[in-house]
Automatic annotation (TrEMBL), chain A:
Signal peptide: none annotated. It catalyses: (sulfur carrier)-H + L-cysteine = (sulfur carrier)-SH + L-alanine. Residues 3-383 form the Aminotransferase class V domain. InterPro entries: Aminotrans_V_dom (IPR000192), Cysteine_dSase (IPR016454), PyrdxlP-dep_Trfase (IPR015424), PyrdxlP-dep_Trfase_major (IPR015421), PyrdxlP-dep_Trfase_small (IPR015422). Its cofactor is pyridoxal 5'-phosphate. This is Cysteine desulfurase. Gene3D superfamilies: 1.10.260.50, Aspartate Aminotransferase, domain 1, Type I PLP-dependent aspartate aminotransferase-like (Major domain). The lineage of its organism: Bacteria, Bacillati, Actinomycetota, Actinomycetes, Micrococcales. It comes from Labedella endophytica. Keywords: Iron, Iron-sulfur, Metal-binding, Pyridoxal phosphate, Transferase. The keyword Transport does not apply. Pfam families: Aminotran_5.
UniProtKB/TrEMBL annotation, chain B:
GO terms for molecular function: ATP binding; tRNA binding; tRNA-uridine 2-sulfurtransferase activity. Its main location: cytoplasm. It comes from Labedella endophytica. One of its GO terms (biological process) is tRNA wobble position uridine thiolation. Keywords: ATP-binding, Cytoplasm, Disulfide bond, Nucleotide-binding, RNA-binding, Transferase, tRNA processing, tRNA-binding. It catalyses: S-sulfanyl-L-cysteinyl-[protein] + uridine(34) in tRNA + AH2 + ATP = 2-thiouridine(34) in tRNA + L-cysteinyl-[protein] + A + AMP + diphosphate + H(+). This is tRNA-specific 2-thiouridylase MnmA. The active site is at 101 (nucleophile), 199 (cysteine persulfide intermediate). It is found in: Cytoplasm. The gene is mnmA. GO terms for cellular component: cytoplasm. It comes from the Bacteria.
Length: 407, 374
């Protein structure tokens, strides 16, 4: 039987969300139309928006539907950059080295095309943002910083960052903070209102935005939300009908929004017991790997405590290529990930692991195993049964590659 | 058998993979990522290495119904093929990067990884045949379609490599049959153009590409007597046998066209002379391999055919393997002198249709010796 252990890539659509989608998609109406068909669609859309907003600690008007995490992040990062440079010269974007490519590449684009300066913040060896360094970078770029952007939970190694601390630093530096909550959503509580209160944020300073994506919590692929505080504004990426505070024009996808809302409600209501369940499964999986496989390192924060996503296990199997392990496990019917971005299907050595101070070889030997709602004890058993043999083969192949070089 | 089908995204490797499935093997498609910075779309006659090519390979694998993966050999490829190509040219030799890729990547790095990961064989879309001798030894033969035959570029494979190789297109009467078969199977690559150029040189401009890497400096063109008869913008741009593109200020004594006879990268000199001087009466090399059972290495001469380029005609010859002062040397004396032989080229030696082995040419003997040079 196929075993799916790549829930951070995407997690299966919840049946209830699928039912919401089908129910909504078969009704007529553009949510921007004035007639009653349009009004009905609008009502469904706004109810969905409010439900999702509630899971993020924002008002409905603050939740902008977008196509997914990447668009949410692009809209936040580029949009805040542009709006912050309207009235003053603030070329600096403060960002840590372990962010998702959506963030890094958006900033690289701003640097290449808009004259932005990226101020890079180091990671600690557990994958968390070095807040001492962050504080210094913010101080060094006082009055020149457009925004800070930070990932709440790292999508590769599962590190949960000290968001309260980061929020306070942004408030102290008087800059807006965007938080990439894509990997954290559904796993750790998100509450923009509470975070702003705790950090002393006021107006468009401090934490102002969360980016989330529906398919990471059992919603459909192709929809996400940028939760943008009412005091903050972004320059839009796309122009047209002026929907959604004129910040994101285009007919809104009501069916996907309804399905997203269903998934968001369920994920929020199940969060505590589900995280406990995943943590037990994950801890057993990690213990089993460490007991059975020699020379393996668990990357990221320790399992105990709340500094790591309960669903995440991330290993470095020395002497292996991550893609060999992935291939062998796939042949055994088990889907996992190397965790890093792909170019034409080729995993790059993870920039996150490199930023954590790992060697390129160690970064290439990485394997990410992520659990989710459908994961069972049987899945963990299947993984633990397969992994020792897989690593023996992958190590043989890894070593033969080095021999080729020595010839 | 568990078979890894190397899929470039072209029609040949797609049909080869499909035939391996039809033959009852358990097949997995693998695309080799050879470039760190692949282009997005295919251009001109390059046959691989863009993201579009890898998508073509994936679509073919989907249609054939086999799993598909991309394996990254870009680092190995850069070291063993691209850097080697530049280094060989810099040293005045004329390498064949496709052979190097077969020798070091497809049938070495890929094959070894495949075997380590549990595969029995690697199948490719090369046009060549495998057979067994009466004693059961593996043999590499020319393809049934001699016009498409690619046994030359596989000449570097050793017995061990051939034992783990599979060439499902070898018996095909013609490429047209392969295209028709691809179309019948519904493969979208059926009408994809053939690739000709070196895959890592974007626009087919080998000279321009080399000039950027080797560096181009003005140097002299000499005649066989050592007189300066012209100048050039960099010796690496010339290959032995070349006639066009020579800037010669001093006409030849006999007024006949002159050809590149020799490239001397160390002194950045190009030597030219009459066509007759291109004729090579003997070629030899120390770096050789046997494709299966070896020939007699006692120095006894034997009859064979020799081929010195992928698309050259084979020439009947007498060969011997001799123990010389510089080690064991493969020496071939063609029945008629060869034209356009450059050091660095691979000489593949055939017994009939069978590939016996190959060597890299490192020594030549001119059919028309020059008494006084320089």
């Amino acid at each position: 039987m196929a075993v799916y252990l790549d829930h951070s890539a995407t997690t299966p659509l919840r049946p209830e969300a699928a039912a919401s989608w089908i129910e909504t998609a078969s009704s007529i109406g553009n949510s921007s139309s004035i007639h009653s068909h349009g009004q009905a669609a609008r009502r469904t859309l706004e109810e969905a928006r409010e439900d999702i907003a509630a899971t993020l600690g924002v008002d409905g008007i603050e939740a902008l539907f977008v196509s997914g995490g990447t668009e949410a992040i692009n809209l936040a990062v580029k949009g805040l950059y542009w709006s912050r440079n309207d009235d003053a010269d603030r070329p600096v974007v403060v960002v840590a080295r372990g962010e998702h490519h959506a963030t890094i590449d958006a900033i690289d684009w701003l640097v290449a095309h808009e004259g932005a300066e990226a101020a890079w913040v180091d990671l600690l060896d557990d994958g968390s943002i070095d807040t001492v360094h962050l504080e210094r970078v913010l101080r060094e770029n006082a009055d020149r910083t457009a925004l800070v952007t930070a990932i709440i939970a790292n999508n590769e190694v599962g590190t949960v960052n000290p968001v309260d601390r980061i929020a306070r630093l942004a408030v102290d530096a008087r800059v807006p903070l965007h938080l990439d909550a894509v990997a954290a959503y559904g796993h750790v509580p998100l509450d923009l209102r509470a975070l702003r209160e705790a950090s002393g944020a006021s107006g468009a300073i401090g934490p102002v935005a969360f980016s989330v994506s529906a398919h990471k919590i059992g919603g459909p692929q192709g929809i996400g939300v940028l939760a943008l505080h009412r005091t903050a504004t972004v320059e839009p990426l796309q122009h047209g009908g002026g929907q959604q505070r004129r910040l994101r024009s285009g007919t809104q996808d009501v069916a996907s929004a309804a399905a997203f809302a269903t998934a968001a409600r369920l994920a929020a209501s199940e969060m505590d017991p589900e995280q406990e369940r995943l943590k037990r499964l994950r801890d057993r999986l990690v213990a089993g790997v460490l007991a059975q496989v020699p020379d393996v390192v668990l990357n990221g924060p320790p399992l105990a405590g709340d500094r790591r996503l309960a669903s995440n296990a991330h290993f470095a199997f020395s002497g292996c290529q991550g893609d060999s392990i992935l291939f062998l496990l796939d042949m055994a019917g088990i889907s996992v990930s190397t965790g890093s971005a792909c170019q034409a299907g080729v995993p790059e050595p993870s920039h996150v692991l490199l930023a954590m101070g790992r060697s390129e070889d160690a970064a290439r030997s990485a394997l990410r195993v992520t659990l989710g709602r459908t994961t069972t004890e049987t899945d963990v058993d299947a993984f633990l049964a397969a992994i020792p043999g897989v690593i023996v083969s992958a190590r043989r192949a890894g070593l033969s590659e080095r021999d080729v070089g020595a010839r | 058998m568990k078979v890894l089908a190397a899929m470039s995204g072209g029609v040949d490797s797609a049909v080869a993979a499909a035939r391996a499935v039809d033959a009852g093997h358990d097949v997995v498609g693998v695309h080799l990522a050879l470039s760190r910075m692949p282009g997005t779309l295919r251009t001109g006659s390059r046959g691989c290495c863009t993201i579009e090519d890898s998508m073509d390979a994936q679509r073919a694998a989907n249609l054939i119904g086999i799993p598909y993966y991309v394996w990254d050999f870009s680092e190995r490829f850069k070291l063993d093929v691209v850097d080697d190509f530049v280094a060989e040219y810099s040293a005045g030799r004329t390498p064949n990067p496709c052979m190097r890729c077969n020798e070091k990547i497809k049938f070495a790095a890929l094959l070894e990884k495949a075997v380590d990961l549990g595969f029995d064989a690697v199948a490719t879309g090369h046009y060549a045949r495998l057979d067994r001798s009466s004693s059961g030894s593996i043999e590499l033969h020319r393809a049934s379609d001699e016009a498409k035959d690619q046994s030359y570029v596989l000449g570097v494979l050793t017995r061990e490599q051939l034992e783990h190789s599979m060439f499902p297109l070898g018996e095909t009467p013609s490429k047209a049959v392969v295209r028709a078969e691809a179309a019948a199977r519904g493969l979208s690559v059926a009408s994809k153009p053939d690739s000709h150029d070196i895959c890592f040189i974007p626009d087919g401009d080998t000279r321009g590409w080399l000039a950027e890497r080797v560096g181009a400096e003005t140097g002299s063109i000499l005649d066989r007597e050592g007189r300066v008869v012209g100048d050039h913008d960099g010796a690496h741009a010339f290959t032995v046998g070349q006639r066009r593109g020579l800037r010669l200020g001093v006409p030849a004594d006999d007024g006949k066209p002159r050809f590149v006879l020799e490239v001397r990268p160390k002194t950045n000199e190009v030597v030219v002379g009459p066509k007759e001087a291109l004729a090579i009466a003997e070629i030899a090399g120390h770096r050789f391999t046997w494709a299966g059972d070896p020939a007699d290495e006692t120095g006894e001469p034997f009859r064979c055919d020799v081929q010195i380029r992928a698309h050259a005609d084979p020439v009947p010859a007498e060969a011997r393997v001799v123990q010389g002062s510089g080690g064991v040397e493969f020496v071939v004396v063609p029945d008629v002198p060869l034209d356009g032989v450059a050091p660095g080229q691979t000489a593949v030696v055939y017994l009939g249709t069978r590939v016996l082995g190959q060597f890299t040419i490192d020594r030549t003997v001119s059919a028309v010796p020059v008494a006084a040079v320089g």
